[in-house]
Structures
1.
Amino acid sequence: AQSVSQHNHHVILSEAASLELGCNYSYGGTVNLFWYVQYPGQHLQLLLKYFSGDPLVKGIKGFEAEFIKSKFSFNLRKPSVQWSDTAEYFCAVKSTGANNLFFGTGTRLTVIP
Amino acid sequence: DAMVIQNPRYQVTQFGKPVTLSCSQTLNHNVMYWYQQKSSQAPKLLFHYYDKDFNNEADTPDNFQSRRPNTSFCFLDIRSPGLGDAAMYLCATSRDRWSYNEQFFGPGTRLTVL
């Protein structure tokens, strides 16, 4: 069965600090990978996704993620966070041909002004 | 704006009293999903509709049912809610069932069972 691990449950950073959130998945086949963000009081929204091609994916609001197949990882990065990035971040995996989107448990990011 | 709408945002029901949660979409997407998200846990897929074709996840309890009367609306029925069914219920849509299609989420309905 597929699973997604997000090891950081809560990350606290000061503004302008760099961010890296870890995501590892377990599945041996071809996958599509997603990062969703949930701002306080809002719905889940897509930050970025990977399905083929360049393993370095750029998303909205300056976020990027790198797919490293050998490590089964899809870490999210941002060089300089802002207070408005305070939110919960979910990594999700979908195997090709499947309908089920497997989510990690999420990482809460708090950015201190 | 096109979106996924869930009503109500907060629902309180009594133990064993049937409850229905509603989802509508203006995206004209073929697929609609229902997820359950308990506190500090990952959202978990309960079932989805591809057009009128209902697809239940193997571990979804029989207590949970769904209806999709038309493209725009999808309902989640909990026949006899237990205390363990208290959770956030998320509705999502996607254009098609291909894996690279992103899913668009509604704001969720938080269900409390007394």
Note: Chain B has a mean pLDDT of 93.
2.
Amino acid sequence: KAGVTQTPRYLIKTRGQQVTLSCSPISGHRSVSWYQQTPGQGLQFLFEYFSETQRNKGNFPGRFSGRQFSNSRSEMNVSTLELGDSALYLCASSGPGQIETQYFGPGTRLLVL
Amino acid sequence: AQSVTQLDSQVPVFEEAPVELRCNYSSSVSVYLFWYVQYPNQGLQLLLKYLSGSTLVKGINGFEAEFNKSQTSFHLRKPSVHISDTAEYFCAVIAVGASKIIFGSGTRLSIRP
């Protein structure tokens, strides 16, 4: 099976812009979670989607949003970008009956200038 | 709520020497425990996991970890490291039935020839 894929891999934006990141889970996986990784804060949970519904949300401002499509692909959107949003954004998927075991994609590295 | 403490931010070892990366967790509910590895400019790869059963868990690349409930620890060990083990290692917990992973701050393992 192909692993979790994320596009784009690298992105440069300026403050105030918005950005959309995409994640395709492993085939058959319906749960998709997003994490932000920064040197200062480490790995932090953003949100989790299952069957097009957000099931869980971390402590991030409303500028961070996401959605999931019927094919389980997920997108994450960040509006009004700030310098502090520069990070590696990781997506993970998990399969039926194995919600606890998450498989990660390579990440999208976002740089906000 | 759960928390994870990785006691060492960096661990330097010589090639072919044994290594132990320490991890302690705190939780008021039952949890599952994981170790992930992150190679430079890559996502997270699952090394091993403890869900239940035997407290000694074997993972990929010759790593193993032991769950100690009384000491709330889940230390990672390898009897003989290789240059290719140079990476950052993350200990993580997830409450049983939940989908949000709580990560430790990571331990950077550097191997000296």
Note: The mean pLDDT of chain A is 94.
3.
Amino acid sequence: EAQVTQNPRYLITVTGKKLTVTCSQNMNHEYMSWYRQDPGLGLRQIYYSMNVEVTDKGDVPEGYKVSRKEKRNFPLILESPSPNQTSLYFCASSETGHGRGEQYFGPGTRLTVT
Amino acid sequence: AQSVTQLDSHVSVSEGTPVLLRCNYSSSYSPSLFWYVQHPNKGLQLLLKYTSAATLVKGINGFEAEFKKSETSFHLTKPSAHMSDAAEYFCVVSDGGGSYIPTFGRGTSLIVHP
């Protein structure tokens, strides 16, 4: 089954404790991205990747890091989480590499930083 | 630059009546436009997309949208609402004008009354 998986689905952590949210897709897609969803703000893109070893900032990259060492994986790293990073996070992938294609979304990771 | 405005944060309809969710966009290029649906505690799923082919686009579950360049609109419609249509709907624009970052609207919550 074609899908995007994220882990963990739920995470509660404390300020400053480094964490990683994993994302994996099995569709051989070139384009992957991370979004955060906050009430009343829709989804905002954090980082995107056009292909392996190619990443770039989205609209809200501050406080986040990503890496793309393999085509299928695109982990999101919070090196020193803060309470304002409490949010619902989605990973997505797309066959086309320019952001204009249909995106396939993971189920989401709900992060709480206390 | 690109932007998208969903004109209603909430839309309430009765089951069996028509649905209209409004979306206006701004783009300096020829945009790709999408509607996604998010059911409670789920990821986003593509409803339909416009990519410069036919201006009337048919999607899944009986939804359709019409691209109107003169009005810069891409409204989502359905002739008859079903209880299962209750969800959050997002309009998305991506014009590829040097930016590979799709822009999401803030979402419209569709409420369906029995």
Note: The mean pLDDT of chain A is 94.
4.
Amino acid sequence: GAVVSQHPSWVICKSGTSVKIECRSLDFQATTMFWYRQFPKQSLMLMATSNEGSKATYEQGVEKDKFLINHASLTLSTLTVTSAHPEDSSFYICSVNPYEQYFGPGTRLTVT
Amino acid sequence: AQSVAQPEDQVNVAEGNPLTVKCTYSVSGNPYLFWYVQYPNRGLQFLLKYITGDNLVKGSYGFEAEFNKSQTSFHLKKPSALVSDSALYFCAVRDDRGFKTIFGAGTRLFVKA
């Protein structure tokens, strides 16, 4: 299966700052990548579908101006959490392949 | 609308015994069904999928799942559980008309030695 990396694996930031999370598909050219959010002891919530060369598709209830997604190449998608607040603290996971998905290891964001 | 239900938050099994993790689904079109496993401090790993064909699907680590269209179920099974199978298991579904995959709430499996 595809190998997906995420960077950073863990980040702490202060409230009001922005944080960028990178998702890289190391051996798979991904025209589409998916961003999920996972709360403790809960399931994955699809936030948005990242489309290479075009705008991301956001799920209902996800603020597109807060969670900026850029998919500049077939191997890289980035999620920027702007003006982060403590309630944005979560585990963010990306994946590739619309069929059986291959997930990155996740990024734990803590906003203080 | 798509939905997935995993009715059990937790399943406890003794090592060597068979295990079943339940999943039911609802989709508009034909279902694509998946099971994923998440080990502590690690990402989700793909276990198996059903797209079409045989109702019994075999996957990684000795797991299998049975697709039952009439009961809209896709239960995960393993004949003999290992302590190392202890993890969080997610059932997921999408229909054949889109890319969006919906995940169940997850079932935590504890296998006791």
Note: Residues 18 and 60 of chain B are 16 Å apart (CA to CA).
